[in-house]
Amino acid sequence: MKKTASALMLTAAVLTTPALAQYAGPGAQPAATSVQAILDKPVDDQHVTLRGKIVRQVKSDEYIFSDGKAEIRVEIDQRLLPATPFDASTVVEISGEVEQDAMRAPEIDVRALRIVK
C-alpha cells in the first residue's frame, strides 16, 4: 500500500511540474536574442535567455541589465541571486519572461540567473 501511495505521489509531482519548453511550430513567436529586440517588439510572457551584465541596482529586487548594446530593467527575486558575489563587470546569463505593461517600458521577470565563467 505504501509503495502504491508513493508511486501515485511521484506521478502527481511529475505531471504537475511546469514545462519550460515553448511551442516552436507555425505562428510561434521567434525568440528574442538581444535587449534591443525586446525593446523594439516586446511580446508579453515571451521566454528569453540573454547574456550580459547587471550594471546597477534600482530597487531591492530591480536591476538594470545590459547586453553591451542596450539596457532593460529586470526583476530578480533575492532567492535567485548567486551565493558568489558579483558586480557590474561579471558576465551573467538570465532566463525569464518579458513583462509588457501599457504604462511602463518592457522588463524581464527573471526566473534563473547564473554566472558565466
TrEMBL record:
Pfam families for this protein: BOF
Which Gene3D superfamilies does UniProt cross-reference here?
Bacterial OB-fold
Q: Does the keyword Ligase apply?
A: no
- Where in the sequence is the signal peptide annotated? 1-21
Arranged from A to Z, the UniProt key words for this protein are: Signal
Q: What is this protein called?
A: NirD/YgiW/YdeI family stress tolerance protein
Where does this protein come from, organism-wise?
A: Vandammella animalimorsus
Organism lineage reads as: Bacteria, Pseudomonadati, Pseudomonadota, Betaproteobacteria, Burkholderiales
